[in-house]
Design brief:
- The protein is mainly alpha-helical and 76 residues long.
- Helix content is 36%, strand content 0%.
- The chain contains 3 helices and no strands.
- The longest helix is centred in the middle third of the chain and has 17 residues.
- 0% of the residues are buried.
Length: 76
Amino acid sequence: MVDPDDLDGGEWADRYRLTPIERWLESERLWVAYLASGGSLDPEPDSQSPFLDAGSWGPGAPVGRSGVGLIRRSGV
C-alpha cells in the first residue's frame, strides 16, 4: 500500500486519506464558504474563443443590486 505522504510530500495527504463521501462533503463545505465570501458560479469569458462577443460580456451586477441600469430622462 502507498503512503499518501510519499506521493506529494504531505500537502494533499489528508485529502487522500478521506473516503469518497468525506471528500464530497468537504467539497460541499468549501463551495458554501466560497459562495458566502462573494464567489460566483458565473463562467468567465474565454478570451481565446473565436465565438466570444466581447461587447455582450460585462461584469456582474454589484452584490444586492439589480442588473438594470439607470435610464436618462430627456426632453424627447
